[in-house]
Structure formats: structure tokens, C-alpha cells
Amino acid sequence: MELVALVILLSIVEYQFFSFKVGMARGKYDIKAPAITGHEVFDRYYRVHMNTLEQLIVFIPAILVFAYFGDPTYAAGLGAFFLVGRIIYFVSYVNDPAKRGLGFMVGWIPMVLLLLAGLVSVVMQIVG
User: Fold this and answer.
1) For residues 33 and 100, what is the distance between their CA atoms, to the nearest angstrom?
2) Sign of the C-alpha dihedral, residues 110, 112, 113, 115?
3) CATH topology for 2-123?
4) Mean pLDDT of 89-98
5) Would you say 4 and 79 are in contact if contact means Cβ atoms under 8 Å apart?
6) Domain locations in the chain?
7) What is the pLDDT averaged over residues 93-111?
8) 27, 34, 40, 122 — which has fewest CB within 10 A?
């Protein structure tokens, strides 16, 4: 479970880094709070940040459930792919939003696998 805890904490650090980059972009492009739009590049940073939040709401419970009821080593491994996917997503979205697909898929597929594996593991515990 230590590896799973590490991956979860790294996902939160990654999210905080994205938050920091939004703040930096807010200053660079002179976007005054509470505005959340105003410059195309700022909008890209903001969308990566919000999209990552949307993913974390599924990722964190899914990795925890699969790690607890299934296999923590596989859960951590899938979680590591999620982290890498979000980095690819961040870089590609900020540079050219049309090219964000690879990063999205590299992060989304392991998240879905964690969710499904967790569901199967829980059901197997119930019926077994």
C-alpha cells in the first residue's frame, strides 16, 4: 500500500503544480480574479487544471479500492501511468489543444482499468 500512497500523493503534487502554473499564467496574461478566461494560453492552463481535478475525483477512489480489495502493486503501476498521462496531457494541451489526445488516453485508460478492477475485486470479495 505504500506505493499506492506514494502515487496518490504524487497525483496531488502534480495537481498542485498545475495550480501553480495557472497562477503564473494568471499573472503573465493579466487575468484578474475571479475571471477564468481572457487569454487563450491562460485558458489552456486553466482547462488542464480543471480537467485534472475532474479526473482525480475518479482516480483516487478507484486506486484505493483496487489496492485494498485487489492488488496494490498493480494499482500503483496503473496509477503511475495515470501520472505520466497527465504530464503528457498538460504539455500537449498548453502547446496545442488539438494534440492533447495521447496524454488523455495514457491517463484515462489506466484510470478506467483501476475503476473496473476495483469493481471486480469488490464483487469477488462479496461473492467469494
Assistant:
1) 27
2) positive
3) Four Helix Bundle (Hemerythrin (Met), subunit A) (1.20.120)
4) 98
5) yes
6) 2-123
7) 97
8) 34
Q: Does 128 have pLDDT greater than 90?
A: no
The pLDDT mean for the chain works out to 97
CB 115 within 8 A of CB 58: yes
In this structure, what C-alpha cell is assigned to residue 60?
483516487
**What is residue 128's three-state secondary structure?**
coil
Tell me how far apart the alpha carbons of residues 43 and 109 are, in angstroms, rounded to a whole number.
Answer: 25
Q: Residue 57 phi/psi, 5° resolution?
A: -65, -25
**pTM of the complete model:** 0.95
Helices (H), 1-128: 2-28, 40-69, 72-95, 101-127
SS3 call for 36: coil
Rounded distance, CA 2 to CA 9, Å?
11
Separation of alpha carbons 117 and 4, rounded Å: 15
